[in-house]
Amino acid sequence: MLAESMAMPVQPARSRSTAGDRLRGMVESHHCELWRFLKHLGLSETDVDEAIQEVLLVAAEKLDAILPDRERAFLMGTAYRVAKRTRGRYAIRTQRESDQEDFVDEAPLPDVLADQGRARRLAEQVLSSMPLELRSIFVLYEIEELTTAEIAGLIGIPIGTAASRLRRARADFAARVSRIDARARFKERER
Amino acid sequence: MNDPERLLDRHDSELAGALLRALKADAPRADSKRRALAAAAFAAATAKSSAGTAAGSLLGSAAKWAMVGGLLGGTLAGGGALLERRAAPPPLASVVSPAGARMNELAQSERVPPPSQRETPRAQELPAPPRPAASSAEPGTDLREQRLAIEAARQELSAGRADAALAKLDDYRVRFPRLAFHQESIVLRIEALQMRGDHASARSLGRTFLDANPDSPLARRVRSLTRLP
């Protein structure tokens, strides 16, 4: 009885246009955050597009089981799992590209603060240096503004673990930014 | 359990705030969303038409791989071929528009012409186009086998066996009537040629690929592999 009452409603039939419209609506509503989340997990822009399309395939297969108010959580959770797999698949290429594109921004701190493009590249460097398990939770909480409970459900870990990982992630991020800040200020004094 | 205040609201560090604001402002280009919308149309069409049957499960998986290797890899020929082989599904353009129409348009435009239509020496460097197979397999099985063939080549490459990877790619070309993973196979070939030290052939093939598919999502990967502009 309980199981029956908790079961997801299964719609007997849905037209292609209904499924297509719903998926289209999901893209319209969540594409930007999905893209940003995957990119901040360390995927290249090409890989992000591929990963999003994989996410949509999964969503299409499970469309009837996704509750309307859980679409975002479903997409982000699936994206997280796809990203973990995709990162492995493209690890060599990603490394090669990052070797080519590696840079150290030596600009004075005020320039970084004033230039959003520069700040974004520096932020991505900071994120990419964080372990994936911390980076993902950091991005979901600080950038995508999910709650720890939502993150726990999405990643499939207990809430306490999510909270503890978030603490470590914030400390890790703060320490890295603090080091960059100190180095930049030291260089400014030297100039 | 109370969540901690978000770092952006705490103003602890000017630099941390700037970095977080920059990350929040990060946004995709318009073409990324366009591709996602096309993928959504394709996914909706394939998920629905394969639902509810045992064969549907296999076909769904095959469709996924066709899309991953075709649409995701830059060509929609795989997805297009799959749909054509299905039992009278409606054309994508009639399912959703304009995304579906765009997909069909891309599927048409990305098919490699047969050798007789290729006149430039460069174009002839591209691996031969799909040719008729001796036996016509059931669609889902065919796509599954294509996926496995590509995966086999990829595994050889991952293991550092460039010659074996090239042999697997040659085998892939001759075995299947319609190559759902055609572009992916070319990119793997470029990687294998690079690994073998045949940089000139890799660049030549890369140049041909980019000439034929300048807007393919795989173009960037080809440029990265070959250092071509």
Structure description:
- The complex is a heterodimer of chains A (191) and B (229).
- Helix content of chain A is 77%, strand content 0%.
- By secondary structure, chain A is mostly helical.
- Residues 1-14 and 90-104 of chain A have low confidence and may be disordered.
- Chain B has helices at 7-10, 14-25, 30-50, 54-71, 77-85, 92-95, 99-109, 139-158, 162-175, 182-196, 199-212, 219-226.
- Mean pLDDT of chain B is 65; it is low at 48-125 and 128-137.
- Chain B contains twelve helices and no strands.
- Chain B is an all-alpha fold and 229 residues long.
- The radius of gyration of chain B is 21 Å and the shape is elongated.
Question: Nutshell version of this structure?
Answer:
By secondary structure, chain A is mainly alpha-helical.
Determine the fraction of residues in helical runs of chain B and give it as a percent range. 55-70%
Q: What percent strand of chain A?
A: under 5%
Low-confidence stretches of chain A: 1-14, 90-104
Provide a count of the helices of chain A: 10
Could you report the average pLDDT of chain A, rounded to the nearest whole number? 80
Question: What are the key terms here?
Answer:
heterodimer, A: 191 residues, mainly alpha, B: 229 residues, 12 helices
Produce the secondary structure layout.
The complex is a heterodimer of chains A (191) and B (229).
Chain A: H1 2-6, H2 16-40, H3 45-61, H4 71-89, H5 91-101, H6 109-114, H7 116-128, H8 132-143, H9 148-155, H10 159-190
Helix pairs in contact in A: 2-3, 2-4, 3-4, 4-9, 8-10, 9-10
Chain B: H1 7-10, H2 14-25, H3 30-50, H4 54-71, H5 77-85, H6 92-95, H7 99-109, H8 139-158, H9 162-175, H10 182-196, H11 199-212, H12 219-226
Helix pairs in contact in B: 3-4, 3-7, 4-5, 4-8, 5-7, 8-9, 8-10, 9-10, 10-11, 10-12, 11-12
